[in-house]
Specification:
Distance between the termini: 74 Å
Structural class: alpha/beta
Oligomer: single chain
Radius of gyration: 23 Å
Number of strands: 7
Strand order of the largest sheet: 2-1-3-6-7
Number of helices: 7
Order of helices and strands: EHEHEEEHEHEHHH
Length: about 220
């Protein structure tokens, strides 16, 4: 079953939407536990942890703690994960289109969930969702090649700071969606941490040598 997330400040259409989508083997997962959607890291961790492959975001999220518009949330998510499709749900479709932060094809009238689930409009919406997930999965597969190159560089300690940041992001995404195996914690430490550890080890060795000399002189 395909897993699609749903973010809103009110979940009044949730039950009917879940019933309609379930008929097409789509599980609609509400993000009700998240009240501060300005924290994109928390949001992304939730999406990855729940293995959500597509997200529906309501335009008006003013009743949440963070009081943001859905277009802003989608922009922040796609800055981290460009290939992840987000549909903007709105009762005023022109408003979502005119902001030009979400492609027109992904701006969806929220009244879609009032349509019969076998209607032409609803089945067209289902096709867009399924196609988006298919594309996302395919793009993740292409990411594996880049990930393996960066992993080799990481093991050889021949990786730049920018490449290392990309490697860690790719690892968490690909592992979350079960495309790669879990790595030993040592490989997820960044170079800065390695340098700090080396300095601390050197200081400890120096301190011990001073202490040992002091004992011998007594």
């Amino acid at each position: 079953m395909l897993r699609v997330g749903y973010l809103d400040d009110e979940y009044d259409v949730l039950k009917s939407a879940q019933r309609s989508l379930k008929k097409y083997d789509i599980e609609l997962i509400p993000l009700e536990d998240i009240d501060d959607v300005s924290n994109v890291n928390e949001l992304m961790n939730y999406i990855i942890d729940k293995k959500i492959e597509c997200l529906m975001v309501d335009y008006d999220l003013m009743k949440l703690e963070s009081k943001l518009y859905g277009t802003r949330v989608i922009r922040e998510i796609n800055a981290v994960l460009p290939d992840f499709t987000c549909f903007l749900l709105t009762n005023y479709i022109e408003q979502g289109i005119n902001e030009k932060l979400v492609q027109k094809i992904f701006v969806q009238d929220k009244s879609i969930f009032a349509e019969e689930d076998d209607s032409e409009e609803f089945t067209a919406f289902i096709s867009k969702i399924k196609n988006s997930i298919e594309c996302f999965r395919k793009r993740l597969e292409f990411c594996i090649e880049e990930y393996n190159i960066l992993l080799s560089k990481k093991k050889e300690k021949n990786i730049s700071a920018e490449e290392e940041e990309k490697f860690i992001i790719l690892y968490h995404i690909l592992k979350g969606f079960q495309y790669v195996d879990e790595l030993p914690a040592i490989l997820l430490k960044n170079n800065t941490q390695d340098v700090l550890d080396n300095i601390l080890d050197a200081l400890n060795e120096f301190r011990e040598s001073i202490n040992n000399k002091g004992k011998h002189n007594v």
